[in-house]
From TrEMBL:
It is a multi-pass membrane protein. The lineage of its organism: Bacteria, Pseudomonadati, Pseudomonadota, Alphaproteobacteria, Rhodobacterales. SUPFAM superfamilies: MetI-like (SSF161098). It holds the Pfam family BPD_transp_1. Belongs to the binding-protein-dependent transport system permease family. CysTW subfamily. The chain crosses the membrane at residues 7-34, 66-85, 97-121, 141-168, 189-213, 245-267. GO terms for cellular component: plasma membrane. InterPro entries: MetI-like, MetI-like_sf. GO terms for biological process: transmembrane transport. Keywords: Cell membrane, Membrane, Transmembrane, Transmembrane helix, Transport. PROSITE patterns: ABC_TM1. It is found in: Cell membrane. Residues 62-266 form the ABC transmembrane type-1 domain. This is ABC transporter permease.
């Protein structure tokens, strides 16, 4: 058996899985997006662009998603990086495992339960009631974009921490020592050595969080209270309640296109940063 045949055999199971579980469902959604809604709901075969022409009707959902998903990703990065840096660089080996387990612990509880906990914390008997003792009345936190942002950052923070932690943990500590020996200040060492060497972890973490947030629907439904909804909430409404499968498919295809364009641009930027980092390292 040739090497090429062996490679095809190794790739075949994953390729078949992707075709069955990804390509075929997306193909069905693509075909449905050009159809029409049946009188009793569902799908009627047709070839029309009417569903795509009606996309502005869901503009609010797209706006909320395209604003809060990047903001949530950025907020998670700003919180996760110092935590991952502390775990990977500043923490002794005997404490790393325990602290990493503490980061994982929230995943042991359903996101539904954790979201309900935030409903209480941000609701009238939570933080707003506490602020009333300091003379701050009528503070509303629940069912706002801020509440949704808090929920998505809390829910997806571990997915941002671990890729960054892995990248920083593989960092050769001798590079940091050499930078200090050469007279570089801690901030200079961080921006010239640590941060560039952790770009791969940042890229992976941001990609994981951003893609999942673009399809999120549970956290906006609970913490947004029907006032702040994502495209995922619109899809649930169109497919399960309105039973407008054709329009829902068009909305889904537009979301996929937006994600593909965004991820492609992002990966090209990361690739350029990696090239610049390698050039600096060679110098």
């Amino acid at each position: 058996m040739t090497q090429r045949a062996r490679n095809w055999l190794l790739v075949a199971p994953a390729g078949a899985w992707l075709i069955v579980m990804l390509v075929l469902p997306l193909s069905v959604v693509f075909v449905f997006s050009f159809g029409e809604r049946a009188p009793s709901g569902g799908y009627v075969p047709a070839f029309t662009f009417e569903q795509y022409a009606n996309l502005p009707a869901r503009l609010t959902a797209f706006q909320n998603t395209l604003i809060l998903a990047p903001l949530g990703t950025l907020a998670a990065l700003l919180i996760a990086y110092p935590l991952a840096y502390q775990l990977a660089v500043r923490t002794s080996e005997k404490w790393k495992t325990l602290l990493l387990v503490l980061v994982i612990v929230p995943f042991w509880t359903s996101i539904l339960i954790r979201s309900y906990a935030w409903i209480y914390i941000l609701g009238g008997r939570g933080i707003p009631a506490l602020l009333e003792n300091f003379g701050l009345d009528d503070v509303r936190l629940i069912y706002t974009p801020f509440a949704v942002l808090i929920g998505i950052v809390y829910g997806y923070l571990p997915l941002m921490v671990f890729p960054i932690y892995v990248a920083l943990d593989r960092l050769d500590k001798r590079l940091l020592e050499a930078s200090a020996d050469l007279g570089a200040r801690p901030m200079t060492t961080f921006f010239r050595v640590t941060l560039p060497m952790s770009v791969s972890g940042i890229a992976t973490g941001c990609m994981l969080v951003f893609i999942l947030l673009m399809g999120e629907f549970l956290i906006p439904a609970l913490l947004g209270g029907g006032k702040v909804f994502f495209v995922g909430n619109a899809l649930v409404d169109l497919f399960l309640q309105s039973r407008n499968w054709a329009y829902g498919s068009a909305v889904a295809m537009m979301l996929i296109i937006i994600m593909l364009v965004t991820v492609t641009i992002y990966m090209r930027l990361i690739a350029k940063l990696n090239v610049q980092r390698d050039d600096v390292a060679l110098m």
